[in-house]
Structure formats: C-alpha cells, structure tokens
Amino acid sequence: MISILFLLASFFLLPITSHASVPDFCVADLNAAQTPSGYPCKNPKTVTVDDFVFSFLNNRGNPQKQFNVSISPAFVGQFPGTNGLGLSAARLEMDVGGAVPIHTHSGASEMIMVVSGHITAGFISNNNTVFVTKLSEGKVMIFPQGLLHFQVNTGEGKATAFVAFSSSDPGLQVLDLALFGNNLDSSLVGKTTLLNIAQIKQLKAVFGGTE
Predict the structure, then answer these.
(1) Which of 13, 61, 91, 120 has the most CB atoms lying inside 10 A of its own CB?
(2) DSSP letter for each residue of 23-75
C-alpha cells in the first residue's frame, strides 16, 4: 500500500516539478554591467528576432597585423542572444603564412572547422604532450578547455575557418601578449623565460609592453 501511495504521489507531483517556470532565454542587456554569471537579462518585451541573429559579413573582425589574421567574434558582447546558453562562435581569416599564436580560453572548449585552405593546428596537454595535425576543407578539430593551442596557415593561399565555443564568453589569454604586452620588468621576464634582455625588449616593442 505504501508503495502504491508513493507512486500515486509521484505521478501527481511530476507535472508540477517538470513544468517549473524557467525562462526560455536571457538576452544580454549590454547596457548593464557584466557579472561572473553573465549579463542581466534584457526586458523580454524589448527582445526581437535580431537578438538571435548574427552576420559575420557585418562584422569584419579584428585584424591582427603582427600575425596576418583577422578574427570576427560572435561572443555575448557582439551577439547578446547567446547570453547564458553556453555557446558562441567566431570566424577566422588567415592570410598566407598567418598564425593564431599560442593562447588559451579559460572558460570554454573550442571546435574549429576549416571551410577553405589548409591550417595546421594543435594543442598542448597538461603533461606537455603535443597534439598537432593538418586540417583541410571540411575537417574539424577540438581543443579542450584551458589548454594552450594554436593555428597556422600552412597552405599556399588564404584560409578560412569557423570556430565554436562552449561558452558565450570563452575568455582569451595570448601567450605572447601575456609575456611581452605588459609592464612586467624585463629582467623578471628574462629569468622566467631564459630569453636575453635584448630579445625581450624587441618583443615588447612589437606587442606594446614597457620595460
């Protein structure tokens, strides 16, 4: 009898618990301050279909002249509809010899799909094992969250790829900028990298760091 009563209670409670009021989406209010859990929700009455549509053609990206690449992000800051959904994207354009330097995304895993050209890509695991391969049109590779990784155009023409992330705001730290794009004393950089001071100063001049 107790078992039957328990089953009946579960049956009648199930609709209550399974139909809890959960918002369908939380489009980012980009006029508000971002928090560790994302942006506050935009008033649902002001949400339009445009909040859920993004065009890479209208966002030509950020050219990185030192590396001959251009990256067009579709993160929450550019694409408010991704807020809280655990996904975002980017378009990568690489000139001949272009490269995305070694970097990491602390907040997301990454997937890259090559749509034209040839890209050599790889990542380094925490035990310093290197995983590298050559990607051509239609090939996909994943980079686990937080691991150092890179992409290099190793073809004879331009290369294009689309990138997806498991976060609306994946974060980014570029190794070159972390070492040479700041005001950390050059002598300390030298002691931690074994580079000589002349090399460090030359690189700081390239990446905007100070001595």
Answers:
(1) 91
(2) -S---B-TTSPPBTTBPPBPPGGG--GGGG---GGG---EEETTTTEEEEEES
